[in-house]
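[stage:ingest] chain + small molecule (FE2/S2 (inorganic) cluster)
[stage:ingest] validated
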Amino acid sequence: MTASFDTGLRPADLDRARPRAVETPWGMLALYCVGDEILAAQAFCPHLEGPLFEGTLRADEIVCPWHQWRYSLRTGERVGIGALLAPGGQKLLLADVTLSDRGTIVLVNPHRGGERIAPTR
Ligand code: FES
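[stage:predict] done
[stage:export] tokens:
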């Protein structure tokens, strides 16, 4: 099982205003700049696969541009009034982010709320 993936990108390669989608062994993830951190979460929405990474970033939450479901980039859970009124939906796939010795962004420990994820290829 691949438990880490070196994106080959450096933090300076990221645009703070625009999440960067990256193909990984666990599917397409997006890198988000949140304050001084880089967070990684699946790029497409668990609802109907809308382009979540093109949504609106509000602190450490992302709002899907299709039906405005809102997710925490820290827990992967749906949040906000929509989740209270119509709960459900799968948590986001997340990965921890670290830097390699050469300063590239490495994704590790892909998980969905504690459930570890095997690579898809
Ligand atoms: S596809 Fe994202 S909220 Fe529906």
